Amino acid sequence: MRDFVLFAHIILGLALIAFPILIITGLKKQSNWLKPFSILTAAVGWILLLPSGKLYLTFYPATKTLINAGSKPWLHSILMETKEHWGLLIPITATVAAGLVLTNRPEESKRWWILVIIISILVGVMGRIIKMGAV
Amino acid sequence: MMARFNFYAGATASAWLLATLVIVAELIVPFKTLLKTIFSHHWIGKAVAITLAFIIFGFLLKEKVSSGRFNESNIAWYSTIGNLLAILLFFVIEYFV
After folding, report:
1. Global pTM?
2. Do the chains contact at B46 and A88, CB–CB below 8 Å?
3. Nearest CA of chain A to the CA of B95: how many Å?
4. What phi and psi values does residue A48 have, to the nearest 5 degrees?
5. Is the pLDDT of residue A106 over 60?
6. Is A47 on the interface with B (CB under 8 A)?
7. What letter would DSSP give residue B40?
8. Residue numbers in A near B35 (CB within 8 A)
9. Which residues fall within 8 angstroms of residue A22, CB to CB, at 6 or more apart?
10. How confident is the model at residue B65 (pLDDT cuts 50, 70, 90)?
11. pLDDT category of residue A133 using cuts at 50, 70 and 90
12. What Cα–Cα distance (Å) separates residue B18 from each residue in A5, A17, A31, B80?
């Protein structure tokens, strides 16, 4: 169960980096697939909350205990606390970007797609640092 | 339907509400406990609250709010970036102070 949720978390997280990159490259060409693909990307942002929540609520407490008992409690107090809350704004940001594409404002959507990419990368890097620090 | 929804207003409301909930929940323990009591976990409570804020403010504030450089697009953009940084800064300060 944990592995399935973890893989879903990683794959959907990577999709939130790759999909916006594809969308940004397609913005200038006004491609036909932009609108449905934007909806899909925003949907991925919301669906990602499910494995994220499962990992955080069910499996992370044991890791948290380990981290807080170790020499690097800042991994939880700063990184995990920031990561868990930044992650909540990813679906909102992706929905804004998708909404701008759907309402024919592709140029305005560009910086929001870039923000989705940046937050997703930073959240992923934080997760990796927390994981490495906990073992 | 889509044109009636103000994505910028929704994003602005969500970003400010999230940072506010984070800070208040950390500083006022009974509030964090209340979120946990209602939603089973404070994180779920925050997720539900900012999602509702996004939807409600998106539908309520349909009219564009623009004033020079402070148009709704920039307000949403800087609110989102600013509140993301505020959350990080808050946890850094909370850890060291």
Report:
1. 0.93
2. yes
3. 6
4. -60, -25
5. yes
6. no
7. S
8. none
9. A37
10. low
11. confident
12. 25, 23, 35, 10
